[in-house]
Amino acid sequence: MNGFCYPINSTEMSTNKEYLQNERNQEWRAELRKRIANKDRTAKIRVKMPEMEPEVRIKYQDREVNTGLTEAMAQSEASRCLDCANPTCIDGCPVSINIPKFVKYIELGSFLEAAKTLKETSALPAVCGRVCPQEKQCEATCFYTVKLQKEPVAIGHLERFAADYERESGFMSVPEVAPSNGIKVAAIGSGPASLSFAGDMIKLGYDVTVFEALHEIGGVLKYGIPEFRLPNKIVDVELDNLQKMGVKFVRNFIVGKTASFEDLKEEGFEAFFVASGAGLPRFMNIPGENFNGILSSNEYLTRVNLMNAASDEFDTPIIKGKNVAVIGGGNTAMDSVRTAKRLGAERAIIVYRRSRVEMPARVEEVHHAEEEGIEFINLANPIEYFADEKGKVNRMRVQRMGLGEPDASGRRRPIVLEGSEFDISVDLVVVAVGVSPNPLIPSEVKELKVSKWGTIEVNEETMQSSIPEMFAGGDIVRGGATVILAMGDGRKAAAKMDEYLQEKLKK
Amino acid sequence: MNQIVEKVLFSEKVAKFVVDAPRIARSRKPGHFVIIRVDEKGERIPLTIAGADPVKGTIDLVVQKMGVSSTKLFNLNEGESILDMVGPLGKATHIHQAGTILACGGGVGVAPMLPIVEAFKKAGNRVISILAARNKELIILEDEIRKWSDEVIIMTDDGSYGTKGLVTTGAEMVIQREKINECIAIGPAVMMKFTSLLTKKYEIPTQASLNAIMVDGTGMCGACRVSVGGHTLFTCIDGPEFDAHQIDFDELIVRLGGYSAEEKLANERFLLSN
To answer: Which of B224, B226, B183, B227 is nearest to B206 (CA)?
Structure first.
């Protein structure tokens, strides 16, 4: 198909201009470009993702809100893409997917080829097609957005379509892998950074083992993101794919605790990719925060998503609040508040200290939350909690905020409006104000250089830490970012670890 | 999957399980705990390790039948397996030569205390252990504790064994009799609270090992928050042992009941279905 027996160092491959040109010059692509005039392509309206009705979907924790494009919708949307000579969309993708190629395969109706293209560089296309903030990435650098000031090609929706089509077709392709080189490498954590790393390393012929602390593989994809946004069975299919490629998964294993790095080195592991995530929830340290009924979004979402606490058949308990306040304005806050609604909350409220404009959550998530009847109390910040005689939270005191000058993040800084306090009745509070890096690995490996925030310090070019055989990526390095940025780190680390190990081998 | 190699019944409600876990058996130290999940529907619960045999590759867990999860575990037999087990978790006990150690264990808290007593004894300390329980039947691991203690005092609420009275009665007797350099307290939160109040009065440095509600046990969920010296810490990664005089035990006791309503319902459902 592309002349490669397997994609060696596929990061370079997909950003290599010459390679992209050759791909674009293939006959089928050239022919396809001629089928429709560009002015007719640009005249088309961007497709709308079909959704389950809000009144229906809030009854189900596990039914997806977005229901996916039909074949006709996908082909029509794909035909909006101009197959630009200089595909700037790829620059916006942290894992450098060959976007025009997969989109054109969809236009052509070769959906399985489209899926194969995605898998050249992405270990988790069905996941990325659902949870990536495409509006800030590939779609932000799409020709339509940049030059035409029109709505971009719905790259994210198309990615999801291709991945879903392949999965449902029963013809899942397993990417080709190089013959085994027998070199053992370990990935620590099994979230998106690790999975992406594992996918690339196995393609290069390494013997890859992924170690996970929990009893399930997938990290934040499993314990964090709810099923109504990313069904677990979709994650499982992608995991299965990696397993078929030869990746080994070890559950219930904490590197640094169950066995030390030294133990693993003795067992033959030559290098490590640490992607243990930003697993430490932040609290606000305000009075009453340790009352019962106040929990982190990590705890709340883990109980529901990983432990199935919403089902009576499972033993893990969950507090089903009637009046639920979720503190924060990020995606995790939206996931938590929408979960609360689905578990029967009469009032599910976002309390956020800035305004809607500054919210870090994806626009789509905020929009979906609004449709589902989520209340937004913006420009407000909790300052104290109160409880009943049993120590269960029943009221929160909130302070009004104004907006001042922009801060380091470029967003306007919230300022306290004195004397503006008011109380809200609550029986469940979910704190979603961010996470800190998980301290387990840094505390077990004393020589590892760590920033004052607890993130592992790496060379940004190579993802290599202060210990040469230890690479790191994802939230343990970034402190709290997105699935796709973590995946980008995983790919970069794989390419650089490969260089490092090949170099070491020569000596 | 971790197979149960041996099950020893201590009483109708308390049993010791010797479980196959070679990696954990090698890497665990006194004070460490594991998180287990009995079956597919099970919750993740923390259990402190009561001992290990690195050669055989087994660890000991002591379980008291309480709610759904502990009952499911208690009901497992030799040859059956615990679905998931991860560890060792938490910070190990700081073992050092302190002089005379007073080790106070209440109920099944004696189980996690055993390896700590052993380690302190091996480090050259004089160790006085107090085992306390409601009645004779609930006094566990007495012989094992004796092996590593210079003196053992038994206290029961009903006087059915040893001296009648609470752990604090025995502890105060020892403290008034001789110089105690450090104290450790492991058991029900109320027992640790009063032991701590006592040793605070006598200004004896005291460590308490907490058994908070946890989900992951790796710092991820924050369910195990505890106030120590006015700061919120996580039992799973900052503990499970803390300076007892700094712990807000009243908050701890309230937090241990954080899911009591839900747990009660679950237990009723469980009893109906079994």
So the answer is: B183
Facing A315 at nearest CB: one of B42, B87, B255 = B42
**Mean pLDDT of all residues in A330-354:** 96
Distance CA B46, CA B86 (A): 10
Position A15 scores a pLDDT of: 57
- Contact in structure between B1 and A251 (CB atoms under 8 Å): no
Q: Are A259 and B23 an interchain contact pair (Cβ–Cβ within 8 Å)?
A: yes
The distance from CA B224 to its chain's CA centroid, rounded to whole angstroms, is 15
Residue A16: strand, helix, or coil:
coil
Q: What percentage of chain B exceeds 90 in pLDDT?
A: 91
Among chain A residues, CA nearest to B270: A315
Kindly give the residue spans of alpha helices, DSSP state H, lying in A376-459: 440-444
B84 with A251: Cβ contact below 8 A: yes
**Cβ atoms < 10 Å from Cβ of A394:** 16
Inter-chain CB proximity B219 and A279 less than 8 Å: yes
Q: A229-260 b/e with 16+ CB inside 10 Å = b?
A: bbbbebbebbbebbbebbbebeebbbbbbbbe
A342-375 burial, b if ≥16 CB within 10 A, otherwise e? bbebebbbbbbbbbeebbbbbebbbebbeebebe
> Is the whole model's pTM more than 0.80, yes or no?
yes
Q: What's the mean pLDDT when you consider all of chain A?
A: 92
In angstroms, the CA A11 to CA A32 distance is 26
